[in-house]
Amino acid sequence: MNWGFIAKEAFRGLGRNLTMTVALIITTALSLVLVGAGILITQATNETKALYLDRVEVMIELDEEISATDTDCSSPACLEVRDELQSSDGVEQVTFRSRQQSYERFVELFGQTDPDLVRETTPDALPAALHVRLKDPTDPSPVEAVSQMPQVAVVTDQADTVREAAGTMDTFRNATFVVAAAQALAALFLISNMVQLAAFNRREQIGIMRMVGASRWFTQAPFVLEAVVSVLIGGIIATAGVWAGKRFLVDPLMGDLYASQLVARVPDSMVATVMPAVTLAAMVLGGIAAQVALRSYVRK
């Protein structure tokens, strides 16, 4: 097979259909940017969720009587709750924090970020609490036994907040994939139109080639290569765009969150892994779409 001829015809075709080629490249690039971003968001969501679930606790706030009088969980009411928790196989660790200790922790957390709130809050406003570390943070059933005890005021599962935040990120990811799917569909239609228009404009040349014995694959190859090259260029642009966007926009904006481990950082190597794979898949789909579109012009 004369690959030089196929390549020459393909690049000549790209020049003939320059406007449509540019439109296809732009549409493909946008689609692949969104697909790549969606995959990276998924990775960030999963890693952030794991980061939080590794350190979340269930906080069991105790009633006013225990909070006011018990400084070391030695009262019968507090011991009843703690012993019940420690007897559960699903509980990894139980830590008691008195009212004063809760206030000191409150000051530590908000003393710099919200000093007005700290000034307006007295130790009496905070309860004594048992902080429970579960073996499986996604399963709060080990604390259900104590939630109905009269000395338990409030049970707060921090994993619920993590799940809500992860749900928000998942929604954003899903919206990204929906838009990416629409862009991908537009790109496939553009591929179909581009190769059909190119084949129509060269129908006489194709007919002569078929008459002298050229195979159907040989006559299709330049048009398929046009589509694949266009998608490849779009993929290169998309890869550069995702890398630049992450490096110069997302990372600087999220730097403080990364440093405080509030959000997991997605490494640059992830972009280098994801985007080439996405581009390769797009090239395969583009080639298949081009072949399907050519069937009405290049017959056996």
Automatic annotation (TrEMBL):
Pfam families from the xrefs?
FtsX, FtsX_ECD
Coarse class of the protein's main subcellular location: membrane
* Keyword Cell membrane (UniProt): yes
InterPro entries given in the database record: ABC3_permease_C, FtsX, FtsX_actino, FtsX_ECD
Q: Where is the FtsX extracellular domain?
A: 57-155
Record's bilayer topology term: Multi-pass membrane protein
Q: Could you state one GO cellular component term attached to this entry?
A: plasma membrane
| Cellular localisation | Cell membrane
Alphabetical keyword list: Cell cycle, Cell division, Cell membrane, Membrane, Transmembrane, Transmembrane helix
**Recorded superkingdom:** Bacteria
Tell me, what does this protein do in biology? Part of the ABC transporter FtsEX involved in cellular division.
Q: How does it assemble?
A: Forms a membrane-associated complex with FtsE.
Name the PANTHER family for this protein. CELL DIVISION PROTEIN FTSX
Protein name (database record):
Cell division protein FtsX
Q: What is the lineage of its organism?
A: Bacteria, Bacillati, Actinomycetota, Actinomycetes, Mycobacteriales
